[in-house]
Amino acid sequence: MYEDFLPLVSKPARYINSEINAVHKDLAAVRTKVCLLFPDTYEVGMSHIGIRILYDILNHRNDTACERVFSPWTDYEALLRKSGRPLASLESGHPLRDFDIIGVTLQYELSYTNVLTALDLAGIPLRSADRNAGHPVIIAGGPCAVNPEPLSEYIDAFYIGEAEEALHDMVELRQRYQDRQLYLEALASCDGFYVPALGRKPVQRRFLREIESAPSPERPLLPLMKPVHDRVTSEIARGCIRGCRFCQAGVIYRPYRERSPEKIADLLRQSLNCTGYDELSLASLSAGDHSAIQKLVGGLIDEYRNRRVSISLPSLRIGTLTPDMIDAIAGVRKTGFTLAPEAGTERLRRVINKPLSEDELMAAAETIFRSGWSTLKLYFMIGLPTETDEDLDGIIRLARDLMGLGKRTTRRPVQLNITISTFVPKPHTPFQWSGQAPIEEIRRKQTYLAAGLKQRGISLKPHSPEMSLLEGAFARGDASLGPVIEEAMRRGCRFDGWSETFDIALWREAFQACGLEPGSFAYRAFEPDQDLPWKYVDVGVTPAFLQRERVRALAGEVTENCRVRCEGCGMGCTDGGTPSFGVPAAASGKASIAPESAEERRAPTPGPSLRIRLKYTKEGRLRFLSHLDSMTLFQRALARARIPVLFSQGFNPHPKLSFGPALPVGMESDAEHLDMETDPFVDLLTITKSLNSALPEGVRILESRIVPRSAPSLSGSITRYDYAVDVPEKFRKDLPERIIALLERTELMVRKDNKKRNIRPAIEALSADEMQGRLMITIREQEGARARVHEILEQLFSIDQEESVLFRARRTAVYAMQRNRWATPMETEGT
Q1: What is the CA 219 to chain-centroid distance, rounded?
Q2: DSSP-assigned beta bridge partners for residue 234
Q3: Residue 207: which pLDDT band, with cuts at 50, 70 and 90?
Q4: What interhelical angle do 735-744 and 789-797 show, nearest 10?
């Protein structure tokens, strides 16, 4: 990526390439260069466990370098187009067009325009037929690849299945066949790969028979910018035993496979030690169905209770929620707990094979409320097959009953946050033959629910019907949709899954230009004997099984889960496809997790401690890290360095760290400060050495000292700042005269948020070092007056903020007033 763009874009930390545990190889020294493209922002992509696994596998090969690229936000894209520079990888800044293979993750249908945008920005022809030997081979995989048709003209090869199975084939075939056409032919003859240009052929999904020995990063990437899911994640199981009929993942990730508690614990231990995270997540489609979940969670609680590591189980099914499980999760103490009934009545839940009674729902909710939660999140779908207004009334009734239960149980106000999504019938599910509910009907149902749930304490969040319409069209569509996606991309459609950038008007124009309608793809129903666009993709589950499930759904019949009885789905896993490491939580007759009491969850009473103050630098690319991300950076570095920082009291303890005033994003500093409380037996030299070894390049501890506990806080006492600003050549003319003229003024009015204020009283000193081309500024907060460096530059040079942020600025010193003199924080004494 391009560093000179970073002052001009929002969230520049997306592009800075300074992550802990990232791999940097000499691209000239390897045989194969692979770039993984995730078609969404960095913070979304780095929440995806799959890209971390692929990155780790490929970089373990000595002959291969794997780098990453994420979709640049619209402001960064505009700079790329204006400058004529190509999209480049995160690690080395190497242009994408010079890689051998670009691996694309197709996670969501509404990211398709981002895929084409990335190719366009990279200077790679959009259509496969227009590429030649000088272009990388574009290989796409992920859940959306089970219907390759909409992107079939743009992707060279699709991979159907679990990528751990095929990465080495993909690389080794590329090394064997340098000729592009021969390589594609070799891929097409390899199980799991589909090459559209070579014609349709049946393609069989590849998958791992077991995941106990499946690769998992020993040193996972640690983003410096907060991703959407910011924690260590371990995949405890793959697949699902439940068979919910609306769920594509439950089909395309079969068979069900588990990792042993011992293996999971080992992986988490390695990851926590080399990242410093304070939260771990046990990932699967239904974590509570792991056969040893209670043993696993109990062991993790025992191991990490004293390290203040929270345990998260993000996908617990209501039927697997035991009281002791809920109490274990209570240690996380986040903002809410999530339940997903999906449908409002027992009848409709039987249709979708999620047979959950209202008594079970209410019992689970009561246990949650009794465990201390007063906020509950609920997920429902509308537009399900056979749904009527009675099912909508069921959602309303259930929400009201939960509100009443919560108030009676907690005896305080309760908040229900209800998300309403639109059902999209996906390929390879029992409902793949059903049409999606028309957008007008979805709008009516959303209005109906909004009227029925209009009361204090209930927040309703419906999903965009227009987004769901497009999702359905691309999930269920054929190759004729490719030109629509290309047309929409050229008209400016980007990040179509983001409400702030989604533009249905542009999409309507694109469909109209191609003579098509999205509803003709989303709404159409298929006959049981009709050829489906994705018919040639064999995910392992037979069409006959899906048809039987469809018939049972319409009859309201429940299919037992895989542990109870094999229903013959076609996966052939009855000989051990659902390995058992214990007794599932829901089947256990007694609790195996020792619940913590409220007092045990509190941080222990503090004993003697030291208050240690650190002075550190922040420079290079890390100057683009936000203040909040910098705080997290230190928290995790301290954990990796095993420095015994003390924690606050209460139910959600935090490390006792306090920082000086925030440094503006993009500014460097020699004078940042941090206070922390530690146990009294630490050595300052050891702290400095250990912490510097754990911090990334660009942040270094310069000094450390013990300060009195009575010393004023950093944020409350620092009011004076020195800055040095490098002045570009074109602004150096008449600089002394400009400074004199500015200092002679009594008012310098700036406007922000429609408010005007005078920054002149805050400018204590302003001078120039003409030999160095440098401006020296001293700012002092006084009488309510505050000034920012870029505001002074804008006044001095009569420029706007877009130009002022391009000046390279550095904070060189900060001061606090103490005993009628200015002192640096490292000179501060107690009061």
Answers
A1: 18
A2: 282
A3: very high
A4: 110
